[in-house]
Amino acid sequence: MTTKIPTTVITGFLGAGKTTLVRHMLAHAPKGKRIALIINEFGDLGVDKDILAGCGDETCREEDMVELSNGCICCTVADEFIPTMQALLAREDKFDHIVIETSGLALPQPLIRAFNWPEIKAQVTIDGVVTVADAAALAEGRFASDEAAVDAQRRQDEMLDHETPLGELFEDQLSAADMIVINKTDLVDPTMLDVVEANIRAELRPGVGVIRAANGHVDITALLGMGMSSEDDIANRPSHHELEHGGETHEHDDFDSFSLTLPSIQDKDHLLATIERTIKAHDVLRLKGFAAVPGAAARLAIQAVGPRVTAYFDRPWKPGEPKVTSLVVIGEQPLDRAAITASLEQAAA
Ligand SMILES: Nc1nc2c(ncn2[C@@H]2O[C@H](COP(=O)(O)OP(=O)(O)OP(=O)(O)O)[C@@H](O)[C@H]2O)c(=O)[nH]1
């Protein structure tokens, strides 16, 4: 019998810290262990792959990364995911482990089920499904239906709201998990963290592990080598969307994304202030990309998750690379693209 290649599936809501966790995993993987990475992004800018490739480590080898862009892995299982897996398995250089980072809007269940397709099942097994939870977003009630209208106490109760697309999607991601990483613990006080953890635990199947982390710093031996064969246990991982719609519709219909490019911007602080203002005014859930700051030799990576905007220079511009500012914007439907674009264009020079 051939040994199956273990695969870790990383899921979790937009901006929860999946890429950050993957980065940590790659940096701390046992020496000599060859890990292939499949990255699935919502939106048509390959920001996550670019950030990982920009890390410069030998563990983040670009040739070991495959990107499934502008799609949700769960909607494109047959068209994209299966062929990608087959191509990976056909490669001569063999991998010891595969890591799949799903988009923050992906429903994990169809992906898990895909591991039962005969051509996949013969060679690969799911080592474990890891769901990254954003402690800060949960503590702030960002999955509640109308944040502005609910007071702090009610927000706590509505953390795992069944009515909203966000809440349901998050529950589906929790129900699929073998392990939960409660991330961003640095942003939440300990009492609130206990509330967040209790709410999460209430949604889990018995036996699912929960670990807390900041910046994805977890003991990677806890993540790799779980040996769960999750694909054999799909019946115990129900999904709202599959139950309610017979798998026919996808929650991504509730979300929208677009990207825009600014040929030049005035300056860094003005850009970040413009982004912050735009996010607040238009309920943008997630914004990320790279900016060309006048006079800077490096590109500025921009990350916004809900109202929190951060930026750092991640790597020097490559010779010949167009120095422009490219951003992807993600939010619930309807996203007022024209107004958001006009607002962000105020940062243009
Ligand atoms: N303060 C804090 N920030 C974090 C932590 N983990 C991640 N971040 C930041 O949160 C932002 C989003 O992190 P990512 O790792 O890109 O999140 P993601 O889940 O991959 O995002 P999508 O792929 O867009 O869904 C980045 O700015 C990270 O630096 C954490 O534990 N604490």
Automatic annotation (TrEMBL):
The keyword Isomerase does not apply. GO terms for cellular component: cytoplasm. SUPFAM superfamilies: Hypothetical protein YjiA, C-terminal domain, P-loop containing nucleoside triphosphate hydrolases. CDD domains: CobW-like. The keyword RNA-binding does not apply. Pfam families: cobW, CobW_C. It catalyses: GTP + H2O = GDP + phosphate + H(+). Residues 239-252 have a biased composition (Basic and acidic residues). Keywords: Chaperone, Hydrolase, Nucleotide-binding. Residues 231-252 are annotated as: Disordered. GO terms for biological process: cobalamin biosynthetic process. Residues 255-348 form the CobW C-terminal domain. GO terms for molecular function: hydrolase activity; nucleotide binding. PANTHER family: COBW DOMAIN-CONTAINING PROTEIN (PTHR13748:SF62), COBW-RELATED (PTHR13748). Belongs to the SIMIBI class G3E GTPase family. ZNG1 subfamily. Zinc chaperone that directly transfers zinc cofactor to target proteins, thereby activating them. Zinc is transferred from the CXCC motif in the GTPase domain to the zinc binding site in target proteins in a process requiring GTP hydrolysis. This is Cobalamin biosynthesis protein CobW. It comes from Devosia marina. The gene is cobW.
